[in-house]
Structure formats: structure tokens, C-alpha cells
Design brief:
The chain has 309 residues and is an all-alpha fold. 72% of the residues lie in helices and 1% in strands. The two termini are 38 Å apart.
Length: 309
């Protein structure tokens, strides 16, 4: 024991030991915040998922009853899960493609391109509620700009958009493209990191622009696409603000997404234990999908030598 203590004291007295202590001291605020505001609440939430707790009365331990109820006798759980998967399956690919196309356009050397980059990115920093109010007006079946434009084009059988059980989810998917500027910036950084020499060599060999895109741009940009894909999965499965502010989960629960249903259970119906179980199911789904993407990444994500660290 004395030899161990002596070794520790010797290490702490060395230059390397002092640097390590200083490093941990500088990082201490982050560690403190992580354990208090992230790890701690997560642990409490996991424990609470095995209790029946409504805030007003003491918590009662019920084991795995919350999880059994979720999978066996809660149709809204499956409905919200279906809505969320529907949104993710269609929104993520569309969002990735649109933001990539915009990034490629913003990568061109044209006059005023920096102004256009700013304009495309601006919606990403616009206040959420204000944006929702704008889109509620745009989607209005009788006075909204979208339907009025369709009428002028001779299309009179226009959708009811947010007021339709069929069109409500596609409406929110369409609205999500408003925020494509945030991914555009990341794509743009990836495009600017591709060596121009590769394109020059391909041009000398007679490769067309389209072939250069498939053989140079996409492979070199694949790590950026992979990053945006992971962030897209996480964001899609946590969609909340649009549904809560614009439709309250309606009509007929067609936009009752998982995070909205979780919120209703926790803060509207005060079923904290049940909501905690919902939260951990969501965590497991996102974790599983993320791990699958990392497993599949070796098949299509290209890294230059040394990029993986």
C-alpha cells in the first residue's frame, strides 16, 4: 500500500502528473455539468421507468409493467412510433439530397455567392415558433400561399395539408426542407476540403462533370454525408416542435410523433414513470439505428489514410 501511495505521489510531483491534474481541473466544470445535468437525470429516468409516479403522490414500484403496457396494450405507442418512422424514412433522404444540391450550387464561383449562402443558412437560425406560424399560414387550405399558387397554375383539387390525415405528415416533411441550410454549411465545408487536383486530373483524362461527381465528389464527401445521416436520424426521431406547435398531434393522431406522445405522458397526463419508459425505448431505437449505420459505414464511407485517427 505504501509503495502504491509513493508511486502516486511521485507521479503527481512529476511534470506529466502536474499537467494531468491541471487538465482535469480545467475539464472539471464540464464533468460536473455532465454528471449533474445529463448522466444524473438519465440514471433517475431509468430508475423511474420501473415506477408508477404522477408527481402528486409517492412513487410506487411496479417492475416492468410500464414496458409491458407499452408493447401490449397501448395503441398510441405504436401509432406514434409509426408516425415517427414514416417521417424519418421520407424526410432524411430528401433532406440530405436537397441540402447537398444546395451546397453544390453554393460551392460555385459566382458573383454574390456569399450572400446566397447567408440567405440559405438564415432560416436555420430563425426562431422556431415564428417559423411555425409562417408555415401554418402557408399551409392554410383557403388563404395559404401554397394553395393559392396551385390554383393559379390550374390545380384546383388542392390538399388540406395540416388539416388532412393523409397530407399532414408530408406537409411537415416538406417544411423540414426550410432548415436545409444547416446541413448545407457542413456539406460546403466538406466540398471545400476536396483537393482541386483530383478534378484537374479527371478533366485531363476526359471525365465528364457527372462522372467526376460520382467518382470524386461523392466518395470524398462520404464522411460528411455519413455525419449528416447520423445527425438526421437523431433529429428525425426527436421531432417535436413542429407537431406540438402546429397540429398538437392531429388530425386523428396523424402527427402524434414519439417525442410529442412522450411529452403528453410526462407533462400533460403526469405519467412520469410511463414517460421515462418511453424515453428509454426511444434511446434504444436511436442507439440501435446509429450502431447499424456505423456497421454499414465501412461499405460506403471513404476515408483517406490517417483520417480515422
Amino acid at each position: 500500500m505504501k509503495s502504491v501511495l509513493k508511486s502516486v505521489q511521485s507521479y503527481l510531483g512529476s511534470t506529466r502528473g502536474k499537467q494531468a491534474v491541471e487538465g482535469y481541473l480545467f475539464a472539471a466544470p464540464w464533468f460536473l455539468g455532465f454528471f449533474i445535468f445529463t448522466a444524473g437525470p438519465m440514471a433517475i429516468s431509468f430508475a423511474m421507468s420501473f415506477f408508477n409516479y404522477d408527481v402528486l403522490t409517492p412513487a410506487k414500484f411496479i417492475g416492468i409493467e410500464n414496458y409491458r403496457t407499452l408493447f401490449v396494450s397501448d395503441p398510441l405507442f405504436w401509432k406514434s412510433l409509426y408516425n415517427t418512422f414514416y417521417y424519418a424514412v421520407f424526410q432524411i433522404p430528401l433532406y440530405l439530397v436537397v441540402s447537398l444540391v444546395i451546397a453544390i450550387m453554393m460551392h460555385q464561383k459566382v458573383l454574390g455567392v456569399r450572400v446566397f449562402r447567408t440567405l440559405y443558412y438564415l432560416p436555420a437560425v430563425t426562431a422556431g415558433p415564428a417559423t411555425m406560424m409562417l408555415w401554418i399560414w402557408l399551409f392554410d387550405p383557403s388563404t395559404g400561399l401554397i394553395n393559392q399558387t396551385l390554383w393559379k397554375l390550374g390545380i384546383y383539387n388542392t390538399p388540406l395539408w395540416l388539416q388532412s390525415e393523409t397530407w399532414s405528415k408530408p406537409s411537415l416533411i416538406l417544411m423540414s426542407l426550410w432548415y436545409a441550410g444547416s446541413s448545407m454549411v457542413i456539406y460546403l465545408a466538406g466540398l471545400q476540403g476536396i483537393p482541386q487536383e483530383l478534378y484537374d486530373a479527371a478533366s485531363v483524362d476526359g471525365a465528364s462533370k457527372w462522372r467526376q461527381f460520382w467518382k470524386i465528389t461523392l466518395p470524398m464527401l462520404s464522411p460528411t454525408i455519413f455525419f449528416n445521416l447520423i445527425m438526421g436520424i437523431i433529429g428525425a426521431f426527436q421531432i417535436f416542435e413542429q407537431s406540438y406547435l402546429m397540429t398538437q398531434g392531429g388530425p386523428m393522431n396523424s402527427t402524434l410523433f414519439y417525442a410529442v406522445y412522450l411529452y403528453f405522458n410526462a407533462f400533460k397526463w403526469l405519467k412520469m414513470g410511463y414517460a421515462s419508459a418511453l424515453a428509454w425505448i426511444l434511446f434504444a431505437i436511436i442507439l440501435l439505428l446509429t450502431l447499424i449505420q456505423f456497421k454499414l459505414a465501412d461499405r460506403w464511407v471513404y476515408y483517406e489514410a490517417g483520417d480515422r485517427g
